[in-house]
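Tutorial, part two.
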Amino acid sequence: MKMSNNSKSEEEIQNLRRNLEEIKAREGVLGYILRASTSAAVDIKDPSKIIGYAALSASVLESGEEISKIFNLGEIKTILLEGADTKILSLITDDHRLSIFMEKKFDHKELYADLSLS
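Running the prediction step on this input gives:
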């Protein structure tokens, strides 16, 4: 998926959602949250964790942007947060915020490459 200064076209978002469906089916991926200014898509394997993952996703992205401002790091595009058993890969492209939750052993670099966001 190309990154541009303009908002992503609906076709690009649909392609991203198709990629996310394929990614979510992999062993070790727990789910994802894709947010835009006017919509959101949430697909978490354990529905009892949706609220917790949504709060974590929002906190990670907001904290990353704040830290970037404080230390003049420029625009944040990717954030990786690892815990004891799980990790979250958060990506910012245009007005979209994507967080993918996975088991700690899962290769997040593989996900990043499969999303073609480089």
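Residues 10-115 form a domain with the Beta-Lactamase fold (CATH 3.30.450.30). In part three we will examine how such features are distributed along the chain.
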